[in-house]
Each structure stands twice: as C-alpha cells, then as structure tokens.
Amino acid sequence: MWCPQMSYFLLFSLYSANLVAGNMKEAGIHENEDKTHVIQFHSNPDAYLGWRTYDDDSIWFTLNCMKLSAEKYCGFGLTKPGLSAGKTKNMFNSDIYTAHGDTVDDRFGDSITNKPRKDSKTSIVCDHCGLHDDGEIHATFYRNLTTGDEQDVAITNQTYRIIWAIGPLKDGDIDYHTLRPQKDYQYRYANFLEPDLTVVPEFKDNIKSEAARTVQTVLVAALAGALLTLALL
Fold first, then answer.
1. What's 79's domain CATH number?
2. Separation in Å, CA 192 to CA 66, 78, 86, 175, 226
3. Would residue 3 count as lying in a domain?
4. Rounded Cα–Cα distance for residues 162 and 77 (Å)
5. CA proximity to 121, closest of 140, 95, 102
6. Which residue segment(s) compose the domain that 210 sits in?
7. Are strands 9-14 and 72-79 parallel, antiparallel or unpaired?
8. Does residue 226 belong to any structural domain of this protein?
9. Would you say residue 179 lies in a domain?
C-alpha cells in the first residue's frame, strides 16, 4: 500500500469553462514508473501534491511543504460540481482537508469568508497523518473516491482545479491563509483517475507554459521520484 505526505492549503475544484486539450506535461504532472503522480504548485517554499488510485476505489494523497515552521498549516479541498468559475476561487461549498503538526482535519467550507469548519463525519484515514520535521510538513491519508457523505466531493474521471493555500495557526487552529493563487494561471489542474486526460484552460497568462517549465526542471523530477519512492511500502 502507498504511503504519501501532505502540508498546505490546497483546493481541488471542478472547472468546466473554456477547456482545451491538454496533457500531463502541459499540466505540470510528473508520472513515475509505478503510476504514482506528483505536481508542484508553489515554489519558495516548495510545495508538492502526490497521489495514486487503487482498484478498491480509494485514492491516497501525499502532501509535502518545505521551509515551514511548526506554526504553519497547509491544506486542500474539493469544490462541488456546478458552481461558477468565480465560486471555485473560494472555500464556499467545498470539501477541504488541512494539515498541521501531526494532524489532518476533514473540513467543509460553508461560507465564502469564514474558515472551513470541521466535518461532522470524517471520511479520511491517515497513514501517519501530519508530521513536522526539520522545517517541512508532510502528511499522508486516503479516502474513497465516493464517500457517501454529502459534505464530500466525489472524485470522478474529470479534470479538477487545484487551489492551494498556506497560512499561520492561531490558538492551535487554522487562521487566514497568507499564500494562495493570485492569478488564474497559478492554479494547477489534474484528472486524478486518468492524468493523461487532464485538460488545461486557456488563460491570458497561460498556465501551460509555466507548468511545462516547472515539470522540466531537474528539481521536480528528482524530488517527485524521491517523495514517491519513500512513500511506497
């Protein structure tokens, strides 16, 4: 079974407008020989998302965020389909996961401005949950592709928008994020079931050129391999 890592405020959201044909290279997705995948979504601090699906309809996520103190958090979430593009840029009606210290929380965003509250029914199972070590946050957990929880978003064969954030803790809980995408091209996109079918929107500032440059760097390839090799049991 796979053992990944986690750490930033990320958000997967279904994006349906103005899609164009894309692929893993254009989306900045690196594929390993064992079919695990990784994508870099921020640099300085470097932040990565890795994932792998299994035949039992589960998906493992690993998140790795570097150069963060123990007083920081990261996270991600899935927006429910059917929202307008504007709605996907915040946490409203979103299935969200946050990681800090040794904790991963299953949350639900029911407000545009307020921080997401903890879900009444957690749908995730941790391998080692969160781990802060030597200035890095790692976490790993898995969930079913479809959980049956109305506060969760089903992961299907579609391209999802990845929105992320990193922020401080306040009184041991997440506070307003300090790092997040500021422009459309700073989001990332992935089809988690079939990454080679990922489609990327066209923007004035083209996400594909930036993502492609990212995935071509030695750092991404080397770290992707290291993360997901260490992650395998």
1. 2.60.40
2. 23, 12, 22, 28, 20
3. no
4. 8
5. 95
6. 9-231
7. parallel
8. yes
9. yes
What's the token pair of residue 7? 């750490």
On whether residue 57 sits in a domain, the answer given is yes
- In the chain, the number of structural domains is 1
- Establish how many alpha carbons lie within 13 A of residue 97's alpha carbon, considering only the half-sphere containing its beta carbon: 27
How far is the CA of 87 from the CAs of 27, 92, 140, 184, in angstroms? 22, 7, 28, 13
In the chain, the largest separation of any two C-alpha atoms, in whole Å, equals: 45
pLDDT tens for each residue of the chain, 233 residues long = 444 433 334 444 454 444 444 588 888 999 988 889 999 888 878 888 899 999 999 999 988 888 888 888 888 777 655 444 444 455 666 778 888 888 888 888 777 677 888 888 889 998 777 778 888 888 899 999 999 888 888 899 988 877 777 889 899 888 877 777 777 777 788 899 999 998 887 776 554 555 554 544 434 444 444 444 444 44
Radius of gyration for the alpha carbons in the chain, expressed in angstroms and rounded: 16
| C-alpha angle 54-214-26 in degrees, rounded to nearest 5 | 65
